[in-house]
């Protein structure tokens, strides 16, 4: 039923060595236009404005997550037995396609479109004629099955655990890949050891007690990557300038003003949900060209914000305290800046590990030597410390350098 490619296809990858493709349906999805579109979307939004080599794409990440899951279902003995061929192919496809609904500039775009990438992802899988056609021609109902894995509704919950839990292939790939492309060592951890000690017990994916150090290392990698890379204030500044630009464009559009930009950006300004045809051409290439054109716009605010994005003339930042806000608002006023477009508030917070009471299939489980399974924070002193510690957060305001 699942046709193999005439010979195994391999794609070179700096993180995993090779990505291996054995099934025609996987190869066809890689060659679909929605998947190829991911080459035009960076994985890390604004982080490349801080780490200059961090412009790897969602295309590379999606292949990487697929490869980790492919290895799990072919190399972890318990999973080889627990899943049949259809389930293995279904979960490989779900991981390959898990980010297909991402728009440009990572999460900044979600704030603008107000639609999460998960919603578009399942819509594309089930409704795009090319992708749903590839899947359903391969096996009846396959598009729905793949979407169900991503919605956490598939009949065998093990499949969703592989890609959406606290120790999942998605996180494992992005940590390793982002660490590699930012040139930071924080994100590295021992993937080989985790795969080698992975088991299935009592319906959960678990890691043997002897693998707990590798899991601790992974949790620490996550913790450090969030604060050093994902939440870096300069990266957030970049995303906030983009958000401010779109706020300005929406206001101009609501006033009936003509906007000098590429037509593909215009549907975003209405505030309505984008159709798949409107969404498809919105990648970082068209947006960049749209910003380029906007620098010539009659509206000085739109032109200035577009210029700032293109030339990395970003906003400064300060802690969000009432005193700081008051002072900066006054300075903005004196310098002639409209605070609706030049003062951004942005708070982020993160817990490196949540024991997830009630959502057991998202927690990390350790298989003890006694044969019992323990939730990670009960099996690791380091993780206990992290769970008991405060939730770290970072609340800032972003604003431009004032004119004299
Ligand atoms: Ni992902």
Tell me about this structure.
It is a single chain. The strands form three sheets. The protein has a four-stranded mixed sheet. It has a three-stranded antiparallel sheet with strand order 5-9-6, sandwiched between helices. Strands 1-2 form a two-stranded antiparallel ribbon. The protein is an alpha+beta fold and 404 residues long. Helix content is 52%, strand content 13%. The protein is globular, with a radius of gyration of 23 Å. The termini are far apart. It contains 21 helices and nine strands. The model has no long low-confidence stretch (mean pLDDT 93). The chain has a domain at 1-183: Orthogonal Bundle (Hypothetical protein af1432).
């Amino acid at each position: 039923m699942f046709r193999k490619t005439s010979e195994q296809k391999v794609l070179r990858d700096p993180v995993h060595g090779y990505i291996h493709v054995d099934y025609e349906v996987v190869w066809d999805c890689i060659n679909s236009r929605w998947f190829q579109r991911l080459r035009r979307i960076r994985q890390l939004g604004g982080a490349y404005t801080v780490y200059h080599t961090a412009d790897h794409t969602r295309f590379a990440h999606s292949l990487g997550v697929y490869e980790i899951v492919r290895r799990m279902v072919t190399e972890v003995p318990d999973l080889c037995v627990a899943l049949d061929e259809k389930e293995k192919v279904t979960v490989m496809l779900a991981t390959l396609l898990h980010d297909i609904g991402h728009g440009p500039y990572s999460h900044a775009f979600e704030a603008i479109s107000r639609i999460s990438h998960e919603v578009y992802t399942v819509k594309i899988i089930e409704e795009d004629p090319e992708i749903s056609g590839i899947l359903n021609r391969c096996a009846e109902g396959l598009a729905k099955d793949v979407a169900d894995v991503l919605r956490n509704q598939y009949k065998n919950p093990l499949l969703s655990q592989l890609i959406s839990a606290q120790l999942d292939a998605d996180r494992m790939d992005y940590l390793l890949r982002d660490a590699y492309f930012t040139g930071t060592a924080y994100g590295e951890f021992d993937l080989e050891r985790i795969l080698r000690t992975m088991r299935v017990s009592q319906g959960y994916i678990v890691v043997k007690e002897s693998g707990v150090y590798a899991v601790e290392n992974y949790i620490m990698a996550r913790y450090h990557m969030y604060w050093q890379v994902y939440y870096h204030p300069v990266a957030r500044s970049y995303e906030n300038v983009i958000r401010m630009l779109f706020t300005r464009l929406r206001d101009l559009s609501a006033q009936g003003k003509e906007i000098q930009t590429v037509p593909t950006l215009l549907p975003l300004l209405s505030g309505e949900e984008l159709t798949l045809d409107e969404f498809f051409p919105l990648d970082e290439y068209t947006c960049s060209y749209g910003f380029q054109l906007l620098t010539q716009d009659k509206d000085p605010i739109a032109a200035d914000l577009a210029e700032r994005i293109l030339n990395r003339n970003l906003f400064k930042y300060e802690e969000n305290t009432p005193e700081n806000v008051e002072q900066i608002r006054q300075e903005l006023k004196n310098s002639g800046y409209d605070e609706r477009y030049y003062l951004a508030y942005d708070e982020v917070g993160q817990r490196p590990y949540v024991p997830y009471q009630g959502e057991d299939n998202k927690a990390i489980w350790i298989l003890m030597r006694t044969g019992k399974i323990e939730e990670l924070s009960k099996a690791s002193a380091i993780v206990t410390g992290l769970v008991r510690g405060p939730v770290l957060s970072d609340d800032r305001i972003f604003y431009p350098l004032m004119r004299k």
